[in-house]
Write a structure and sequence with these properties.
Blueprint (H helix, E strand, L loop, with lengths): L2 H19 L9 H14 L19 H13 L7 H23 L4 H9 L2 H5 L6 H13 L4 H8 L4 H9 L4 H23 L4 H9 L9 H15 L8 H24 L3 H20 L12 H11 L1 H6 L1 H28 L7 H10 L5
Helix pairs in contact: 1-17, 2-3, 4-5, 4-7, 4-15, 5-15, 7-8, 7-9, 8-9, 8-10, 9-10, 9-14, 12-13, 13-15
Length: 370
């Protein structure tokens, strides 16, 4: 089979898995994605407020994802299931961004493998079809680190809290004008919030509330061990929770350090490596002191992890290519099995609407045509 045919087969299989897995969860079933859909509809009416008495202005979450959803919501409402396409296209952007970044750092031979490992990631497949900003933001972050214009960094800053860290890391070596342009959207949004509600952004107060680990240093080692297991062991490798995920995540962390060292010694793309390294360090520091954790948080680091792993394995690919491919397949197997499970679950029991009790309540209480 030629390389082009193999790539086409990979793309078809990845697309099938994501589309099938997207049928597992109806749009709006998670509280966060329901909120983004409601805010998108609110934007169409000229506001950005929580629906209900008083129309309280919103300073958390940021408006970037709701703004992106506004046009699809206007075109597709009330056929909410079609909005799964936004999430699926976001996943495609993440896979393409992984391929593009890997091509620059590793070369054209390894880039398709990095993209494949990202595409079949169980967290990415598991969140397929859910209207959340995490997948889109992870894809945008890859483009920003790889050298996107400041407007794209500014857009990332309006989608997730991590966006401010992304813009700060990407500023390295790009001058103060780039930094000003990247932070301008977030600064303007904070000024709007201060004017309409007296609060620049609830993200700051939320971060303070959720950073209680700073006052409990003795718990940091246990939290760091949990973080390694959840983010790398489960989120990247797809291992089951527990000691195995922790050990697998620790080994993967050491391999990533070796991969970063190998890329740095190669001497190329050092500005890119500085930005990527600074971003990853800032993410680690954030989650070390921030107690909450959900699987989707690992999507911001997952593509970088696979690229670093392939960089560490490059000598093995040069000497024993078959062994290197077998090891990569073995590492991807637990995650692939989980991804296949999500796809089969979606095909076996597709959910077109919200949970029955929720849908019944909405039909009884929402005016016709809404």
């Amino acid at each position: 089979m030629s390389r082009n045919r193999a790539l086409a087969a990979f793309l078809a299989l990845a697309a099938f898995l994501h589309m099938a897995a997207a049928l597992r969860t109806p749009l709006g079933a998670a509280s966060d994605d329901a909120l983004h859909l409601l805010l998108a509809r609110n934007l169409l009416g000229g506001g950005f407020a929580v629906p209900g008495p008083g129309g309280v202005p919103v300073t958390d979450p940021l408006p970037g994802f709701a703004l992106l959803l506004a046009l699809p919501v206007a075109l597709l409402s009330p056929h909410w299931g079609l909005l799964r396409a936004v999430s699926l296209l976001s996943a495609a952007l993440l896979v393409w961004g992984t391929w593009r970044l890997a091509r620059r750092l590793l070369g054209p031979e390894a880039a398709p493998l990095a993209a494949a490992l990202a595409a079949f990631n169980p967290v990415l497949v598991g969140w397929a079809g859910v209207a959340m900003p995490d997948v889109l933001y992870a894809g945008v972050s890859l483009l920003v680190i790889a050298g996107a214009p400041p407007a794209r960094a500014g857009g990332g800053g309006l989608r997730r809290r991590h966006g401010a860290l992304l813009a700060a890391a990407a500023c390295w070596g790009r001058g103060w004008r780039w930094a000003v342009a990247a932070f301008a959207p977030l600064a303007l949004w904070s000024a709007r919030n201060a004017y309409v509600s007296g609060s620049a952004t609830a993200y700051v107060s939320n971060a303070k509330d959720q950073s209680d680990l700073l006052a409990a240093w003795s718990t940091l080692p246990a939290h760091a061990w949990k973080l390694v297991g959840e983010c790398l062991g489960r989120g990247v490798l797809g291992l089951p929770a527990g000691a195995l995920a922790g050990l697998g995540g620790l080994v993967l962390l050491l391999v990533c350090v070796a991969g970063a060292r190998a890329l740095w010694r190669r001497g190329a793309e050092k500005p890119l490596l500085r930005s990527a390294g600074a971003y990853l360090v800032l993410l680690v520091l954030l989650h070390l002191v921030w107690r909450p954790w959900q699987s989707r948080y690992s999507l911001t680091v997952m593509p970088f992890v696979w690229i670093l792993l392939l960089a560490a394995a490059e000598p093995l690919f040069d000497r024993r290519k078959a062994v290197a491919w077998a090891l990569c397949g073995l590492l991807a197997l637990p995650g692939l099995s989980r991804s296949l499970g999500y796809a089969f679950e979606g095909l076996a029991a597709p959910r077109v609407e919200l949970w029955p009790r929720s849908a019944a309540w909405l039909r009884a209480n929402v005016p016709a045509g809404e």
